[in-house]
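Narrative progress, year one. The postdoctoral researcher (J.K.) led the effort to move from monomer predictions toward full complexes, under supervision of the PI. The following entry was the first complex the group processed end to end, covering 1432 residues in total.
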Amino acid sequence: MVNILAEPYFWIAPIGGFASILAALILAWRILSIKVDDPKAAEIASAIRIGAYAFMKRQYTTITIIAIVIAAILLAAGFVAPKDVEAVAVHFGPGAAVAFLIGAFASLLAGFIAMDMATRSNVRTVIMAKRGIEPALKTAFHGGAIMGLLVTGLSLLGVTALFILYGADETTPTKIIGMGFGASLVALFAQLGGGIYTKAADVGADLVGKVEAGIPEDDPRNAAVIADNVGDNVGDSAGRGADLFESATAENIGGMIIGGVIAYWTQNWGFLIFPIIARALGIFATLIGMPFVRLSRGEEHKPMRALHKGLTVTTIMSAVLFYVAIQLLFGSEPGGIYLYFSMLAGLAASILVQVITDYYTGRERGPVRRIADASQTGTATNIITGFSVGLETTALPIASLGACLLVAYYFGTLFGAANPELGANASLIGGVYGTTLATMGMLAVMGMVLALDGFGPIADNAGGIAEMSGQKGIDESMEALDAVGNTTKALTKGFAMGSALLAAQLLFQAYIEAGNEYLRSLSLPEIKLELSNPVVLVSTLIGAMLPFIFSAFAIRAVGSAAKEMVNEVRRQFREIPGLMEGKAKPEYDKAVDISTRAALKEMVLPGLLVVIVPIVVGVLLGLSAVGALVIGATMSGIPLAILMNTGGAAWDNAKKFIEAGNLGGKGSPTHAAAVVGDTVGDPMKDTAGPSLHVLIKLLNTLSILFIPLFIGILGL
Amino acid sequence: MVNILAEPYFWIAPIGGFASILAALILAWRILSIKVDDPKAAEIASAIRIGAYAFMKRQYTTITIIAIVIAAILLAAGFVAPKDVEAVAVHFGPGAAVAFLIGAFASLLAGFIAMDMATRSNVRTVIMAKRGIEPALKTAFHGGAIMGLLVTGLSLLGVTALFILYGADETTPTKIIGMGFGASLVALFAQLGGGIYTKAADVGADLVGKVEAGIPEDDPRNAAVIADNVGDNVGDSAGRGADLFESATAENIGGMIIGGVIAYWTQNWGFLIFPIIARALGIFATLIGMPFVRLSRGEEHKPMRALHKGLTVTTIMSAVLFYVAIQLLFGSEPGGIYLYFSMLAGLAASILVQVITDYYTGRERGPVRRIADASQTGTATNIITGFSVGLETTALPIASLGACLLVAYYFGTLFGAANPELGANASLIGGVYGTTLATMGMLAVMGMVLALDGFGPIADNAGGIAEMSGQKGIDESMEALDAVGNTTKALTKGFAMGSALLAAQLLFQAYIEAGNEYLRSLSLPEIKLELSNPVVLVSTLIGAMLPFIFSAFAIRAVGSAAKEMVNEVRRQFREIPGLMEGKAKPEYDKAVDISTRAALKEMVLPGLLVVIVPIVVGVLLGLSAVGALVIGATMSGIPLAILMNTGGAAWDNAKKFIEAGNLGGKGSPTHAAAVVGDTVGDPMKDTAGPSLHVLIKLLNTLSILFIPLFIGILGL
């Protein structure tokens, strides 16, 4: 038993976590010191904020009940399960329940903070826009950065603290996987519920407002407009906050499970703690990169430049810091430098995925133009073309991520071959650690990406507040920011998908490790995932079906709520005298109520479904079947998520391309067709798509946590 | 070396094949003896026929060139590859090239016969409709039955003949896998090209005709109407003919490869030849069931009853004949009766999948009604709801097929356990043979299902001819037949998907067998499909991406050709004076030309893509990687195909539900929204969806044939 806490490098991790939170607090203080000196804007912002709070209060109540029930099950399982099996104590009982609750609570907190900062930054972005585009851009970016830094910092500190509390040795990461599952579970409900809320409102508002009534987006006469703006905060901000907290947490723990194996064999504990150190270094790189988010002279019309600069500096700094860290921790190991190349492969993948997403969703590029052109012959050709673009977008990201994994694996095998003390499977173990490091490499820029992700809904909301409060003279800035926000939202979704895949891969390896550990302790044969075994094949197939049925529920919820919303907004235009002329106010609360009810009602069933199915499969068919199920879900979930995320964004930008005055511009039949395409893409890109990332990781963390349950009573 | 040909039961197979062809010839003689005594209908039918011939001539030229190139490669590979490895001689060289060409040629022939009989039966259905619904129903059914019987018979005779010619022992099935690959390759191009042709015309015709001009379906004033009716024949009939010929062939060969393994160990050659005997028994059951396709008194308004009766009798007869066959061939083996239960599981799956498909596409059921209701709030909610229904339809078929495989596997393991001479893995080998028999069980009713499948486009075409030639008094019969045709088309697509999955599973087992055989002959380690190996995982992921990118190409082709078609039909209405008033004729040939060019141009790239990617992966990463790729493609391809097939049919039937006078009926905004939904579903259900079945089987046959190529030069 080695004392890892005596290892000075270990303390880089908590220092990184604290630095991240400190930076976030400083930024928050700066944002809050901006005075909101526009009563009308303040009033609207307050209405949005109150709506968001009201929804999240109800949503959090539901999620908390579900979380407490699951914690109670974990606790009870600890009493019921045979105590003589060591692994049972690791996976079930008070320790597991507490870790689960900490993960769940922290994830709720991350979502809440994201929503809170977004609803404070939106109106301040409007205020700063009066001084020019750069101050507005920075305000929105800082609002997003607070979320990014807090989420990353909280996750890192949480994992580090639990690691210390639960023993700080190579068996500890498996003991704290409950935290990852708690975070995933909350993230799933937060992302799904928020996604249903926001898109029911958005689709309803657009269909009646833009297409039927011919009034602009965010027009205050539209009854659904407040719900729409609330939705940006509870869906895009809070949902994504919880989602990425979950990513960071699950990946840290998964990386440490794999690292623990190598650490045990090499007796170099650096392998165990490297994942959290890498996360801390990523935070430092992000803190260095953030000040570069600024516009040089002459760049006023290219606000995206500022964000690109920040991202580029962060990426380069990560590469440098990683080199140093690899040298310090593994420099003395034979072939340690190979691990650096594995990490670089991950960093390269993060760049590639973003470039590809940019190509497919860029407003002036081929794919978006193809959708816009197809709108000229009506809605049907718009939808057919958009769907085919969505299908097409799966190829290059998957090819890039596949190549990244193979390269990382290759360098890892070289490292393994140089370390024969890793045992008979040295190359394979080294290769697996290589892919782990690729994940760390990809996630290096996470804080920065999260900041960009938070930027989108803040800019979107600021545009809404400006429109509703009748601001003059800042239209151009607002539109420019909104366009940037759309780009960053698509980019970050590409990143979230890529990191979900790499994380799934990593957690899957951790599952194999932990599962075999458990089976060995019972003297049972190890997990055998031979696809030529029909039981494994069928389980893979069941897994492959899960993302489809989950998406069905999510999209169906948006469809039916949007239908109700359309009818309600139509009714208000018809029945409230003077509404269209601007003399009367719509009943915003009715629309808010439709979104709220739909979100709360419809998020429960799909969420529970994806928890129950793998457990049933595991209890009936055993550990190998669960592993196969998880892989099947990943295999079909990743392309489906890309189809929905990138396809949806392409539809959105085809509409924006037409709204910019092309092919007939606003109000033309071509525009009407493009609006329909956008609304079809909406629940794909903002409800089902991002929830699929969480789903995939949830299945992974769940499978690890419930290992002792998967006894396979059918004995096939 | 045993003389299998001396085994009397063997000869059941060719007898079944000949009986099938004889029955088809009798039916053809009966159809052709119906006199076409309506000059206007004859003229239109002739125009459709000429159009279909013209397209298929050009399409077949392209496919033939591709087939000859691949045959040449197979031939050349035989000279280049090392001759001292026995497996190379099996997979490459003159034998492989000839088998490939026979498969390709027979598949072309099957498609041609299907098209030819469909274009003769359509007009005769119109003629017979004047005598009542039953004669019309029987004519359309017999037209389909000719296709079904010829395809099933040709495949069975072809496989049996090659089996005899290539040696008639347990190694022979692997030698003739080239026939399966040839059939798959032709089927892919036929289904894809035909699918693009038919849907470009259909979508274009509907969008301008029904939505913009407000004229009925198949109105002769619509320039795209002849192309639309030609499309039914070259896409639905010829494409599906080639597709199912391919299914039958590949499954026969795959089943014999697995059966050969058991035969070798047990020295009971019944295991080897049972797949072709089962096919012959299925033909006998079909021939017994077909005369039951008739309407009792009082059933004139329920024509579907007649088809249900035929299908039910065929299913029951199959169960009976299989029992006898199992008793005769395996009755003396310990636990032979377990294999009967495995077969029944397959038969049950075929019923279940059809019941489920019927639920999701039935016009009076929940899902279709949901889409119809959503059309009331416009196109966007129609599309969103339809897409969610499509996603939802994946769950139950996959669960049923999974359960079927598990049950079949379970009984197979019992059989294996009772036969210890099967070696250390007796249970697993028995289980795999159990799933093979499930496939045979499912395919028992294939001839009947094919007949129903052929029924659809014939009824559809008959409706078109009746409308265009201005027939009076048969509207009701024609509409009833069309509705039945839509139901059978959806059912048979469900069946095709189910059988594709089972076939893929079976061919995959055959791949493992043949691949390991090859590796053993080179003293190399066997195929290891451990998903925990990143190389296997990445290959699975690449495979999972293939169905998405393939569908992207297919749907994109339809989208762009439909756009061109819409512009052309719009132009003709605008520029041809008197067209709308019915005083002038449209230029049908321009529309035919658009469909033809699009189909020929766009079918090549996706077709070659799915041939080249697995070969590249195999050459670089080896046999395990190819196996993983095939599984990945199956895992994502099956749910994607179900989504597209069943979702598309639900959209179609929601439109038909409204056209029947519900929710505002024809001409209402609700109807317009539903027409858009239908056109969006069209390329999914008739172009991409059915091509995905072929794609999955193509990957399987290709992987087996090219085994010696997959050397994995990267050595990962």
